[in-house]
Write a structure and sequence with these properties.
Strand order of the largest sheet: 1-2-3-5-7-8-10-12-13-15-17
CATH architecture of the largest domain: Alpha-Beta Horseshoe
Number of strands: 17
CATH class of the largest domain: Alpha Beta
Low-confidence stretches: none
Structural class: mainly beta
Strand content: 15-25%
Order of helices and strands: EEEEEEEEEEEEEEEEE
Largest sheet: 11 strands, mixed
CATH superfamily of the largest domain: Ribonuclease Inhibitor
CATH topology of the largest domain: Leucine-rich repeat, LRR (right-handed beta-alpha superhelix)
Shape: elongated
Length: 236
């Protein structure tokens, strides 16, 4: 195991070979990985930028989970994760990302992407371009005020979208999605208009809870949600 990292067999939540390189600086990314490493944790390394050449090389191609949480990341090169073909989950939560330029994660193959607890205020069209494999997207606990209508265009496999604890006041219709779970609780939304969930006919679980500003839900706001099983409106 490369010093000063720690290598071990992780048994929960998945059984896999893990390598912890936590608070190791000044070189936060090891030059080599232990044989068979499937999980790499890089917490608390004061990383501010993720360049394109960090996760290259044969050893990185076996990674299934990559943790970049609890750093100071502001920017990520779009090609940074291109080589991680087997990646199942990428965690960049608890960082300082404030914007997502077009194609920010173009070459990411992971079904799960966690960008919660950052400083993102807006999501523009094309921000998640090319993430065909994405199933779970966590954007909760940011500073989101606006999400453009085509912000999630192309994410036809996404099922879970977490937008709770943001600053959203309106909902823009999102077409072409097959979401089953949508979390919008703890946002200052005051009105749910008819057609707000147009294009989301597959929704099964919808959270609109703990939004004290919510004063108006128009007739037929949920008319197209034929598969909805659970609707949460408590705390309003």
């Amino acid at each position: 195991c490369p010093s000063p990292c720690t290598c071990y067999l992780q048994t929960y939540p998945v059984r896999a070979n893990a390598m912890d390189c936590i608070n190791i600086g000044p070189e936060p990314v090891p030059s080599r990985l232990a044989n068979g490493t499937e999980i790499l944790k890089l917490y608390h390394n004061n990383i501010s930028h993720v360049p394109a050449d960090w996760f290259r090389g044969r050893a990185y191609t076996r990674l299934q989970m990559l943790y970049l949480s609890y750093n100071s990341i502001r920017t990520v090169d779009p090609a940074a994760f291109r080589a991680l073909r087997l990646l199942q989950a990428l965690y960049i939560d608890y960082n300082d990302i404030s914007e997502l330029p077009q194609g920010a994660f173009t070459d990411l193959h992971s079904p799960q992407l966690d960008i919660s607890y950052n400083n993102i205020a807006e999501i523009t069209a094309g921000a998640f371009q090319g993430l065909w494999s994405l199933e779970v997207l966590k954007l909760d606990n940011n500073r989101l005020e606006r999400i453009e209508a085509q912000a999630f265009a192309g994410l036809s496999n996404m099922r879970y979208l977490h937008l709770a604890h943001n600053m959203l006041t309106t909902l823009e219709p999102q077409t072409g999605l097959r979401l089953t779970h949508l979390y919008l609780d703890y946002n200052p939304i005051s009105r749910i208009a008819a057609g707000a969930f147009r294009g989301l006919e597959g929704l099964q679980i919808l959270y609109l809870a703990n939004m004290p500003e919510l004063a108006n839900i128009e007739d037929s706001a949920f008319a197209n949600l034929h598969h909805l099983r659970e609707l949460y409106l408590f705390g309003n």
